[in-house]
């Protein structure tokens, strides 16, 4: 029980007047104060034992943290910044597993979704996507990253000259498209394509520039695909995240890029360091990067 200032004053008054007061109120105050002092003495007496126990635990820690202690589930996923005005852009540049990983790891990108766009088929699915292209929808904070910078990443992250495919993936679904929303985006996209064509004298840049139409999010199993392939990283953010949480989480978007080793080098190193720190401490789970 803490000593209240009333009690303290009563106690002093008692010593100033008489040590043998018979005032019952005072006697109660004094006896409770004495109890309090006894408790404190006990606490002081116990503390070396507790301290030694704590020291043993700490000294054994390096040997016991070879595995990380993860909670079964986190009750709350990390808070995402919610009140910033975000912008959205959609690109197609080959397999959407990879495209999501390329953009998810950039500073200023808040959320990514793999999906289908650029075709006319209603409600496309992975096994029957019709004339759509595998695409990524990117939600970004324009104060941190611009459409122009995203275009740069688009051009440097795939081979826009490859016809009817991307890398080893062959087919119309892997074609290269910039989807634009409005005239300003259109002219930025067109200028950047011209620059790209100037750089590539020997071959034609196949990238199409299309007015944004409907974007169909892909099935849950295609979202954050690279992260899902990495159970260690999934555990690191708490495990058992629902499909919706995985889809909306900025942290999952970043780690999806990290898992595919597609983050910009500085970010890749930054996440490495965070993870190493957690491994060294054995706690806590990764909540942000
Ligand atoms: N060649 C790729 C295609 C993936 S995709 C989402 C793969 O099978 O890994 O189209």
Automatic annotation (TrEMBL):
- Alphabetical keyword list: Membrane, Oxidoreductase, Transmembrane, Transmembrane helix
Residue ranges annotated as transmembrane are 43-63
Record-annotated Peptide methionine sulphoxide reductase MsrA domain positions: 89-228
Q: SUPFAM superfamilies of this UniProt entry?
A: Peptide methionine sulfoxide reductase
Name a single GO biological process. Answer: cellular response to oxidative stress
What EC number(s) does the entry state? Answer: 1.8.4.11
Q: Which domain of life is it from?
A: Eukaryota
Name of the top EC class for this enzyme: oxidoreductase
GO: which molecular function terms?
peptide-methionine (S)-S-oxide reductase activity
Q: Name one Pfam family in it.
A: PMSR
- Cellular component, GO annotation: cytoplasm
Catalysed transformations (reactions): L-methionyl-[protein] + [thioredoxin]-disulfide + H2O = L-methionyl-(S)-S-oxide-[protein] + [thioredoxin]-dithiol; [thioredoxin]-disulfide + L-methionine + H2O = L-methionine (S)-S-oxide + [thioredoxin]-dithiol
Q: Which InterPro entries match?
A: Met_Sox_Rdtase_MsrA_dom, Met_Sox_Rdtase_MsrA_sf, MsrA_MetSO_reductase
| Protein family per UniProt | Belongs to the MsrA Met sulfoxide reductase family.
Name the PANTHER family for this protein: MITOCHONDRIAL PEPTIDE METHIONINE SULFOXIDE REDUCTASE, PEPTIDE METHIONINE SULFOXIDE REDUCTASE A5
> What function does this protein fulfil?
Catalyzes the reduction of methionine sulfoxide (MetSO) to methionine in proteins. Plays a protective role against oxidative stress by restoring activity to proteins that have been inactivated by methionine oxidation. MSRA family specifically reduces the MetSO S-enantiomer.
Q: Which HAMAP family match?
A: MsrA
Q: What is this protein called?
A: Peptide methionine sulfoxide reductase A5
Organismal lineage = Eukaryota, Viridiplantae, Streptophyta, Embryophyta, Tracheophyta
């Amino acid at each position: 029980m803490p000593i209240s200032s009333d009690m303290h004053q009563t106690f002093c008054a008692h010593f100033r007047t008489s040590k043998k007061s018979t005032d019952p109120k005072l006697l109660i105050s004094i006896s409770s104060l004495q109890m309090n002092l006894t408790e404190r003495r006990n606490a002081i007496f116990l503390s070396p034992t507790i301290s030694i126990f704590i020291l043993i635990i700490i000294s054994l820690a390096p040997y016991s943290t070879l595995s990380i202690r993860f909670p079964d589930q986190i009750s709350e996923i990390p808070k995402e910044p919610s009140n910033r005005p975000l912008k959205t852009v959609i690109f197609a540049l080959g397999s959407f597993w990879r495209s999501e990983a390329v953009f998810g790891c950039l500073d200023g990108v808040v959320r990514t979704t793999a999906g289908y766009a650029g075709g006319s088929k209603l409600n496309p699915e992975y096994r029957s996507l019709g004339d759509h292209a595998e695409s990524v929808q990117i939600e970004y904070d324009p104060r941190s990253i611009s459409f122009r910078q995203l275009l740069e990443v688009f051009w440097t992250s795939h081979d826009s000259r490859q016809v009817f495919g991307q890398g080893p993936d062959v087919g119309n679904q892997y074609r290269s498209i910039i989807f634009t929303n409005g005239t300003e985006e259109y002219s930025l996209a067109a200028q950047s394509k011209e620059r790209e064509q100037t750089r590539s004298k020997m071959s034609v840049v196949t990238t199409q520039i299309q007015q944004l139409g409907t974007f169909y999010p892909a099935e849950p199993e295609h979202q954050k695909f690279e992260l899902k392939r990495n159970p260690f990283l999934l555990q690191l953010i708490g495990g058992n995240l629902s499909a919706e949480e995985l889809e909306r989480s900025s942290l999952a978007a970043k780690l999806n890029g990290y898992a595919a080793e597609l983050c910009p080098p500085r970010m890749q190193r930054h996440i490495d360091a965070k993870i190493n720190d957690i491994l060294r401490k054995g706690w806590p789970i990764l909540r942000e990067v």
